[in-house]
Amino acid sequence: MAALAWLLIPLFAAVGGAIWASWAARNRTTGDVTELAGYAKFRDAMEKSHSGSGAL
After folding, report:
1. Complete DSSP assignment for 26-48
2. What is the pTM (predicted TM-score) of this model?
């Protein structure tokens, strides 16, 4: 029974490592589209003339 426990420890470590590796290698480009759209809105707002409210 003790030998089985010693065999399960590396097995759990390998499974945990595989889960971590798949999480670390995930595709992270989904946020780029929203960031670019937000930047375009910001750039358009900065290019507009002032509103004439007198605030700096």
Report:
1. S--TTHHHHHHHHHHHHHHHHHS
2. 0.48
